[in-house]
Amino acid sequence: MTHTKPGFRPANPDFSSGPCAKRPGWSVEALTKAALGRSHRAKIGKAKLEQAIELTREILQVPADYRIGIVPASDTGAVEMALWSLLGERGVDMVAWESFGSGWVTDVVKQLKLADVRRLEAGYGALPDLTKIDFDRDVVFTWNGTTSGVRVANGDFIPADRKGLTICDATSAAFAQRLDFRKLDVVTFSWQKVLGGEGAHGMLILSPRAVERLESYKPTWPLPKIFRLTSGGKLIEGIFKGETINTPSMLCVEDYLDALNWAKSIGGLDALIARAEANAAVLDGFVDKSSWLGHLAIDPATRSNTSVCLSFTDPDVAALDADGQAAFAKGLVSALDKEGVAYDIGAYRDAPPGLRIWCGATVEASDVEALLPWLDWAFAQQKASLKAAA
Predict the structure, then answer these.
(1) Same CATH fold, 268-389 and 28-264?
(2) What CATH code would you report for 268-389?
(3) CA 238 – CA 67 distance, rounded (Å)
C-alpha cells in the first residue's frame, strides 16, 4: 500500500451508477440533429420516437409481439405505471434485496394497500430464496440490485407456464445483462443507466400476457392520466408507437438515439455485455488480491457486472461502527473526487458503507485499470488518518 500518488489517471473519471458515463467519444455535437422547437407530434418528432423504440427492440432483442413504450419519470415512472395498472387482480409476491426493490414493496403495501401481499426479502449481499416464489401470483422484482450489486443469474427460476405476471425492474441490467424476455411480462429501465443517456424518461416493455391483463382487469383505484395505458378497455396502442403520454425532451431522445446507434455500431447486445463483463473482470481481479476490499455480493454467480458494490474487509476499518465506516468511506471517496480520478463512487445512502463503481458498457476497461492504484492510494491516506486519530 503506497502513499505516493499514481502517475496516471483515468481518461474518464465518471464511475457514477446513474446518470452513468456517456458513451466513448461522446460530445454535444452528437445532438445537433435534435428536433428542437418542433412538436413531438410532428412528423419529424414522431419518427425519432418510433426509431428509438425500434432500435431498442433490435438491440435488446425484444420479441416482436412485445410492446415497447416511452414513458415519463424515468424507470420509477415505468415501474409505478405497471404496479398501479396491473396489480390487484390476484395476490402478489414482492421480492427485494436492496433499496429500490424495497421501495416497490413499500409502495404496494402502504400506497396501493393490497390485501394479499407476500414479502420475500434478503439483506444486502444476498438473494432471497427464489424457490419460495409462487408464480401463480404476480411477482415484482429487480433483475439487478443497483444498490447491492446482487443480480439474478438468469431467468431459469421463472416457469414458462406461470399464471401470474412477472414485473421486472431491469434498469441497471438492460443492455449489460441478457434478459430472458419470454419469462418477463413487464420490463422497465431508464436511459441514463447502461447506455449513459439523459434522465427523466423511462421504457415500459409489455408481453402479450401483460396486455391481456390490462384489457381484462380494471383496478379499483383511480389512475391519474400519466399512468393510463388503456382507453375504453383497450390498450392505447399509440403509446407504443411513439405517441407519448406527455411531452418528451427531444434533446434527450436525440441523445438516446445516439447511444443506441453507438451500441449498434460496436456489435449490439453481445458487444455491450462483453464490455461490461470486461470492466467488471478488471475490478474483480483487483478485489481478489486486495487486503482491504471485498464484494458486497456473497455469491460470485450473482455479482453484478454494472453496479459493483464493495465493502471494507480491512480489520481496523471493519471493526469500526457503522458511523465510523461511513466516515471512512466518505473520506476515501472525497479524496478521489478531489483528485479528479473517480466521481460518485460512494455506496448508496441506504446500503452498507463502502464503494459502488459502475462498470457498465460505456465505461472503458482502461479507465477501470487506471483507477485501481488510486483506490489503494486513497485507502492508505484514510488508514493513516484513522491511525493518527486513534
Answers:
(1) no
(2) 3.90.1150.10
(3) 10
